[in-house]
Amino acid sequence: MQVHSLLRTVTLTFLAFVATLAQADEVSAAKGVLKRLLGTRSREFELIQAPAKNGLDVYRVRASGGRVYVEGSSGVAMSRGAYDYLKKACHCLVTWEGSQLNLPRRLPDSSPTEVVCPQRYRHYFNVCTFGYTMVWWDWKRWEREIDWMALHGINMPLAMSGQEAVWQQVWHEYGLTDEDLGVLEAREQDRALRPLEGGGRNRPPKGYFTGPAFLPWHRMGNINSHMGPLPQSWLDGQVQLQRKILKRELELGMKPVTPAFSGFVPGEFARKRPSAQITRSAAWAGFEPTYLLSPRDPLFTEIGAKFLKTYRDVFGESAHLYLADVFNEMPPQFPQATKLRDLSDVGEAIYKSILAGDQQGTWVMQGWLFLNERDYWKGPEVEAFLKPVPNDRMIIIDLACEMMEVWRAHAAVREKQWIWCVLHNFGQNTSLFGNLQHYVDAWDKARSDPSRGQMVGMGITPEGIEQNSVVYELVTDLMWMRGGSPARLGGWLRNYVLCRYGETTPGMEQAWQELLTQVYSGGGAGVFYTRRPTLDNVGEPGPGLQESRHLAELFVKESSHFGRSDLFRRDLVDVMKRYLAKCAEARFYGAWTSKDAYSLETEALQGTLDDLDALLASRPEYRLSKWISDARGWGKTQEEKDLLEDNARMQVTLWGGPELHDYAAKEWSGLVKDFYEYRLTYFLSRYKRGRDPASYQRTIEKVELDRVNHRHPVAAMGPRTTIPFARSLLSSYGTTASREIDRGIAVGKPASDSGHSEPGGDPTHAVDGYASGPYWAASPYPQWWQIDLQASKNIGRIQVFPYRDGERYYQYTVDASLDAKVWTQIVDMSHNTKPATAAGDIHQVGPITARYVRVNMLYNSANVGVHLFEVRIFAAIK
User: Tell me: the pLDDT tens digits for 119-160?
Assistant: First the structure.
């Protein structure tokens, strides 16, 4: 008994010693964050380790005599506490595009404040972020991001880099060679490479790994080998980078989520192991199906365990949180009769493979599959998949709660631990957009819902970052708030502006209030010139030209006061690029509707896009040359540098496959002039010469590919002085497209349909003011769409814009009613055979008095669906 007691005492003493060392590491790590942020002034902060409060992170802050005392339960909590003081007492801000750190000479006194974070986990990143944003980052940029995470209170980041080197070791043990895997070995780097099909780049034999820019989708089993191979130097370099990333995150007390096995195997694995039970996944986005190991094959657990153990050998101990995503945007290919059992077996196999590699492991998965393929994932399917996993050994990332709260739809999800997240950004598109009040309201509603089940945190899951910082500042603040913040958005925004620039004025507050109204209340997404022009998306410009000009005028006016702020200059470029894009859209429409083969409007369009390109060049982060330079910087030989540049160019333009072109579109200097402008003028000239749509479709993809494959140096244009240039642009565009199109009286009114709309085909799209872009879609025909004008109106004209592709035609009728019960037909297009056009169908109908208008979509010559871009209703002229 005495020996046992002595051993127990020694053990407890040792554990206490280890805990003390860990705490010292966290204090030291948090001090490092402040030193990199504030330099010598970080010495004015004293950081103290404190215990957590009921298992939750806590910080306490007080300041007196020019010193700030921050107690925190982790390195993250200490960093967040210091940042909270900097924002509130010193009006500072830290963003991706720069920081405002104009500290007073003597740090202000502050009364003691305690904040207990109500969220156990504050999650960060989307799997796709590692492709769209971070693929070319070096340690310097990663270090800055980890500091941003700590200051904003993030403690559960994804950590996906470097795993391919681990998989390389694992697959070697199963007899696969580097050629099988698609690894460009050092001895191969100087040899002549074979030409790729389609006149593109030179490539070695196809393998398993994709190129670096497409690894996120390879990791989720969507694609193999696309834009490969992977240079061995890339694999080795990513290992060194990941070691630094994990070390720093763990030092700060973060719990990084590292990868696990989800069942996808190389195609060559089937040949090496002919007895393995392997099936093909559903084809994703037009790519070849990948290979999926049966959950009933003993190799599943063996491979999963081997991967995790090898991962720990390479990178050290983990936080025991493991990400495994299967069926991402790919419906499972199981027979109807056995699918519930099959789904259950997959869930059980993934979980058991994690446990085999780490008995303390918890399975983390993104819940996107339940949203994206919701027609497949009904209640029984979701329950079958999740049920084999204990509730406390799984965390589901509810990836896009601002779009659809999966936890509300499925009891099986909320029974597990789950995290409420805002996705916000797809493809790292760079346009200004967001819906601040919606994020606040939706979060407040979710966290106070008594049926929320095991909600354990909040997260941000953008596919790409370094855009719309105001969205992420708000959401990270919400993570640490404990109570009703929704009513205070206006005050929060005023304080954000003050912190962003270090000061504010009534004019600047007015400018941001208009930004909130125009952009950050749900509008603003999408830029016309970044989309491949086709007959189905060419049409009149969208609304908001004058409003966007007025916003630009407000910012230009304030430039005399705020011009020394780099963050202000970034914002000025952002509002100016939005205005110039709308000017370009108006000029494109003018060129499209002109009868001349090459009109003055086409020249004006080119001039506007050239100006836009030059404006964007004033910001280093808005230059294609930087993206390409960062990519080439990872190459060791000329062949590697060229391969990585090809990856970089392909991702931000065509992406690959038949469906994803322009998905990762960017408003970048170099792309605007060399790619988007070239493509738009090609489209105009092609159709002006009378070419048919089919001919255009056959040639545009080749034209784009040739442009992307034109591996020429991209000039890192010398930046113009932003403010004088913005002023001159605003002056020169004073009369551009000053006439707004009459969009009638139906815009924004309540719309409904017969109840069979397709995913994403909401009936409100047909009254959003845009005659191209999002559209109402329903199937099969016949279906009806209806608008409520909310009061009886005298109607004189109706304009209907069906979907168009140059060939299809629609047949429909239009009815009107005062009470939505008795209807009168006012338009008959039931025998129409003329293809739909960008001009729509104009019908003189009145005057007739009605409150409700219904479009009965009877037939589509192309397929069984019916589609409306827009329905416009115009009051009768008195």
Answer: 999 999 999 999 999 999 999 999 999 999 999 999 999 999
Could you tell me which of 500, 643, 664, 629 has the C-alpha nearest to residue 574?
500
The SS3 call for residue 671 is: helix
Q: What is the 3-state secondary structure (H, E, C) of 566-620?
A: HHHHHHHHHHHHHHHHHHHHHHHHHHHHCCCCCCHHHHHHHHHHHHHHHHHCCCH
- Report H helices in 133-284: 139-151, 163-173, 178-181, 215-219, 232-251, 267-272
Max CA pair span of the chain? 103
pLDDT digits (tens, 9 = 90+) for 797-817: 999 999 988 789 999 999 999
* pLDDT tens digits for range 603-623: 999 999 999 999 999 999 999
Q: What whole-number distance in Å separates Cα of residue 566 and Cα of residue 780?
A: 54
pTM above 0.85, yes or no: yes
Q: Phi then psi for 455, rounded to 5 degrees?
A: -70, 125
Q: What is the pLDDT of residues 703-752, one digit of tens each?
A: 899 899 887 766 655 556 899 999 999 999 976 544 567 889 999 999 99
**Integer CA distances (angstroms), 781 to 766, 801, 871, in order:** 17, 17, 18
Instruction: Give the lowest-confidence range in 70-84, 158-172, 692-706.
Output: 692-706
DSSP state of 263: S
- Give the number of other CB atoms < 10 A from CB of residue 393: 16
| Residue 93 φ then ψ, to 5° | -155, 140
CA atoms of 553 and 18, how far apart (whole Å):
59
Q: How many helices (H) and strands (E) does the chain have?
A: 28, 28
Q: 860: helix, coil or strand?
A: strand
SS3 433: coil
Please give the structure tokens belonging to residue 779. 């199937």
Residues 6+ apart with CB under 8 A from 5: none
CA angle 693–697–703, rounded 5-degree value:
130
Please say whether the beta carbons of 452 and 396 come within 8 A.
no
Query: d(Cα 290, Cα 328) in Å, to the nearest integer?
Result: 12
